[in-house]
Write a structure and sequence with these properties.
This protein is an alpha/beta fold. Helix content is 33%, strand content 26%.
Length: 272
């Protein structure tokens, strides 16, 4: 049994952060051939739901870099390696010290709730008004966050220098891992996503592999949060736009995500 895992941004999604029609048609042909596939993304369920609507309905999805497993058939959710209260407090204190608004992501009764402090900059205000406020998430003040809430990750956006400093400091902590990259909002900004260190795509991929009895795991990715699943995959493919360290770990480098690189490769790989 082949079991295929797709990262989304920079991998399966195109330059508009959407599934192209060619990719959708390719996935349909994979379904028809009985080839098992699902997603393994750093995105939350909320941010991926509109993109994946009507797709990926058969197998559990991996969200939040392995923290959240969502089974669309059973409508059930599992959490692995949530952030602890001590870790949450450390991350929040660091963000506020750098004058950056932290967005604390939780899933409560299958509903996405985001707790945040007052926005400090226009880029944060726009994130709230143009995206979060129009989504299905519930926005709550940070001081309403109870200690027993299941915090999957803490995200933020800010000027490159501040995010880079925080990213370095957080990754020196033995129980925390932070991922970062350039923000769509402008070259002077970066995003950062912070998790418990044991939360990673590789662990979640292995869990599904064991549950499904898959003999051959195939992974597609482009960034450092894909390394953990590349390390356990039987085949791993990096898009042409991927970071150098991902390309170095890949079985093969395939086409660019802006040019349906994954879908074109799948068409040849499985004779679709």
């Amino acid at each position: 049994m082949d079991l295929v895992f797709f990262d989304l941004d920079g991998t399966l999604l195109n330059g508009s952060s959407l599934l192209s029609q060619f990719t959708i048609d390719t996935l349909s042909r994979m379904d028809a051939k009985g080839i098992a596939y699902t997603v393994a993304t750093g995105r939350t369920m909320l941010s991926a739901s509109s993109i994946l609507e009507g797709q990926f309905l058969s197998l559990p999805h991996i969200y939040n870099n392995g923290v959240t497993l969502w089974d669309p058939k059973r409508k059930s959710i599992e959490f692995e390696n949530l952030l602890t209260e001590n870790e949450i407090n450390l991350i929040l204190a660091m963000a506020l010290e750098h004058n950056i608004t932290p967005f604390v992501n939780t899933v409560e009764n299958h509903h996405h709730v985001i707790y945040h402090s007052p926005p400090q900059h226009n880029i944060e205000k726009e994130l709230i008004t143009k995206y979060f406020a129009r989504s299905k998430a519930t926005l709550m003040p940070l001081n309403a966050l109870a200690h027993d809430r299941p915090v999957t990750n803490i995200s933020m956006i800010g000027e490159n220098t501040h995010i880079k400093t925080m990213w370095k400091q957080l990754n020196e902590h033995p129980l925390i891992i932070a991922y970062s990259g350039p923000a769509h909002e402008g070259k002077e900004y970066s995003w950062m996503d912070v998790h418990h260190c044991f939360a990673n795509k590789g662990a979640a991929v292995q869990k599904l592999r064991d549950e499904l009895g898959a003999k051959n795991v195939i992974c597609f990715g482009d960034s450092d949060n894909d390394l953990s699943m590349f390390e356990i995959a039987d085949e791993c493919y990096a898009t042409d736009n991927a970071k150098a360290l991902i390309k170095n770990k890949a079985t093969k480098v395939i086409g660019h995500n802006h040019d349906d690189g994954v879908a074109k490769f799948l068409t040849e790989r499985f004779d679709l």
